[in-house]
Amino acid sequence: MNMATGRRLLAAARLLGIWLAAFVGVSCGAELSFTLEPSDIIAVQEQPLMLYCQVEGIPPITTQWRRNGVILLEDKNYTTFINGSLLIGRFQRRRSDGSSDEGDYECVAQNSFGLVVSRKAKVQAAKKKKPKQGTEDKCWWILSARCHPEASET
Ligand SMILES: *[C@@H]1O[C@H](CO)[C@@H](O)[C@H](O)[C@H]1NC(C)=O
Ligand SMILES: *[C@@H]1O[C@H](CO)[C@@H](O)[C@H](O)[C@H]1NC(C)=O
């Protein structure tokens, strides 16, 4: 093999390498990327709450959730689904152990190529609504008799 052929082969191999790298990178997604990230949410107390997270990449992919930076361990209070979603069985602002389900949640996904962290989703407990006093207030539970000043006076 002469020098020119060698150089040409080397150039061709290099080109193939670049092309392969681009192909693998684009079509298989060695890099993990989010197709669904959790969003800020107001949670209703004592109700189940689902947070969504979906990633694309080469399997196997494992998904974990963090609340305020601390990994949530799966127990009877939390379930992590295979599709990445997190289910809080019964949302509680104050748990008996002093912890709270409120906080910043983020989803952490990992495969053998790397790790990605989603945006932070702020989860807050809904404030209990008190029925408003006064006749000026527009009633959104208009079907309820308690809500109609005229109705309740008769
Ligand atoms: C993930 O799986 C759970 C349980 O099967 C389901 O309730 C939820 O809707 C799924 N999430 C998405 C984004 O499909
Ligand atoms: C679920 O949360 C409660 C606090 O409300 C805690 O006492 C309990 O240990 C948690 N469940 C598990 C399996 O850790």
Please specify the SSE layout and strand pairing:
Elements lengths: L2 H26 L4 E4 L4 E3 L5 E3 L2 E3 L5 E6 L2 E2 L6 E3 L5 E3 L14 E9 L2 E4 L3 E5 L23 H5 L1
Parallel strand pairs: 2-11
Antiparallel strand pairs: 1-4, 3-8, 5-6, 5-9, 7-8, 9-10, 9-11
One 2-acetamido-2-deoxy-beta-D-glucopyranose binds next to loops.
Keywords: Disulfide bond, Immunoglobulin domain, Repeat, Signal
InterPro entries: Ig-like_dom, Ig-like_dom_sf, Ig-like_fold
Protein name: Ig-like domain-containing protein
Short description:
By secondary structure, the chain is an alpha+beta fold. The chain is built from two helices and eleven strands.
Protein model, in words:
- It is a single chain.
- With 154 residues, the protein is an alpha+beta fold.
- The protein folds into 2 domains: 1-30; 32-125, Immunoglobulins (Immunoglobulin-like), CATH 2.60.40.10.
- It is built from 2 helices and 11 strands; from the N terminus they run H-E-E-E-E-E-E-E-E-E-E-E-H.
- It has helices spanning 3-28, 149-153; strands at residues 33-36, 41-43, 49-51, 54-56, 62-67, 70-71, 78-80, 86-88, 103-111, 114-117, 121-125.
- Strands 2, 5, 6, 9, 10 and 11 form a 6-stranded mixed sheet that branches.
- Strand 5 and strand 6 (70-71) form a beta hairpin.
- It is rod-shaped.
- The termini are far apart.
- Mean pLDDT is 80; it is low at 139-154.
- One 2-acetamido-2-deoxy-beta-D-glucopyranose is lined by residues 75-77, 95-97.
- One 2-acetamido-2-deoxy-beta-D-glucopyranose (NAG) binds next to loops.
- Residues 32-124 form the Ig-like domain.
- This is Ig-like domain-containing protein.
